Amino acid sequence: MHRRFIVPGALGAASLMLAIPASAAAHSPGAPGIGDPYYPAYGNGGYDVSHYDLRLKYQPATDRLEGTATILARTTADLSRFNLDFLLDVGEVRVNGAKASFTTSGEQELEITPKKPLDKGSPLTVVVRYSGVPSSKQAFGFTSWHRTPDGGIAANEPEAAAWWFPSNDHPLDKATYDVSVQVPDGTQAISNGTLQSTSSRLGWTRWNWRSDQPQATYLATLAVGKFDLSTGTTEGGIPVVNAYSRDLGANDGAARASVERTGEVADWLSEYFGPYPFNALGGYVPNTTTGYALETQTRPFYSPRQFANGSNVSVVVHELAHQWYGDLVSVRGWKDIWINEGFARYAQWLWSEHEGEGTAQELADYTYASHPADDAFWTVKPGDPGPENQFDGAVYDRGALAVQVLRNAIGDDAFFTVLKGWPAKYAHGNASVADFQRYAEEVSGKPLAALFDTWLFQPSKPDAPAAGTRSLAKAPATPPVQPRSWRKIAATNDVHEH
């Protein structure tokens, strides 16, 4: 707050002296975490980012990354200093054009003190110059940067950004992105969104990517290596860019046979979830030893291991379903992971039905029958699993089972209205399990608190009649037959074992 004092002589001087400490005292450090109880150190308080401009240079031979990040934001509090989440070595920070002092703390905190305190509601431009070897950095005992024989990859959940750019690292603070990466000629740099241009000079090629719709930090990805790129468009006209490492070996054919169906799968999913929400599409398969896949926005990451047993379109369905459930609508807090994983797994059940390999109901019946009451599977609560169980198989399978129970409880008309209406209602924002329950109640006109509590929050196996499913209520004497798609879907159970 700025006030103009018009007072005479010594009284004016005294008043001004009193005013300065009071004004300074109003500014305080931004919180080192955004407030997520699962991950208290993730994200930061005091500002909201609108755009990241990342200008990078990467040398695959040494894994050295140099960068300049320009971050556009607005303060949400009176700040004396603020934090970014970052791990590489910082050479200089400027805030609104002036050099700022900085230090590090905790596992991944970059503390920045501007020359002048920042008033609430002010525009904020932060420039960070940095360098380092991402694969040499760890936080909380692990790394989210994956070294490959021909480069490196940033892809992980719930975090990956800190290994390659400074950020407010939590889904609550989405932003748009420009990612420009300089790599040696003959090497490709893959990121999210649309490829704006490439240019070569003096042995280096610069790849310029743009994501002009809000994107969570963990959904931003970077992959550098030797890739074959394929391009095309969906029936709806969305440009598709897929990338495959040239060193996938025996997994190459199966990977291409799966990921090349990306456009087809996205068009099919749009029948259930509404129009595809972004202006770019694709996927990439680097030569990495990881086992998981990830819904990096517009361009999912797939590990070669996903295709070790042949083509696996089901995992493509899973990651593309996340473009609506997880990317377009993101979690409000990480405890809300069911909205991401339960519905992405349910999309695989719908695909099974589409392929004639088992209906969603048959998969629900088999899931329920496969886990006896004393199975630890039922102790995991998909609606709030805890950070240790955030990607447990029960969040996927019990989570999808809960979706089928909801479908049977409210009927197909209301259910598919919810399925398509939810992404539209919270587009480019964040929402919780409680928000979803309220929305399903609004659409269906039915009270659903007991159903949600039983299937998402109780650490025990519900009684069969409580399942609300037509076949489970009959309590068949013989166990359900395993649907043909079961093994394919089970093969993707480790897609998020990060």
TrEMBL record:
Catalytic activity: Release of an N-terminal amino acid, Xaa-|-Yaa- from a peptide, amide or arylamide. Xaa is preferably Ala, but may be most amino acids including Pro (slow action). When a terminal hydrophobic residue is followed by a prolyl residue, the two may be released as an intact Xaa-Pro dipeptide
One Pfam family hit: Peptidase_M1_N
GO biological process per UniProt: proteolysis
EC id: 3.4.11.2
Region (Disordered): 466-498
UniProt xrefs under Gene3D superfamilies: Neutral Protease Domain 2, tricorn interacting facor f3 domain
InterPro entries: Aminopeptidase_N-like_N, Aminopeptidase_N-like_N_sf, Peptidase_M1, Peptidase_M1_aminopeptidases, Peptidase_M1_dom, Peptidase_M4/M1_CTD_sf
Cofactor(s) essential for the protein: Zn(2+)
Top-rank taxon: Bacteria
Residue ranges constituting the Peptidase M1 membrane alanine aminopeptidase domain according to the UniProt record: 310-455
Domain Aminopeptidase N-like N-terminal: 50-219
CDD domains: M1_APN_like (cd09603)
Keyword terms of this UniProt record: Hydrolase, Metal-binding, Metalloprotease, Protease, Signal, Zinc
GO molecular function, one term: metallopeptidase activity
Signal sequence segment: 1-24
Protein family according to the UniProt entry: Belongs to the peptidase M1 family.
Name of this chain's protein: Aminopeptidase N
Organism: Streptomyces lividans 1326
Source taxonomy: Bacteria, Bacillati, Actinomycetota, Actinomycetes, Kitasatosporales
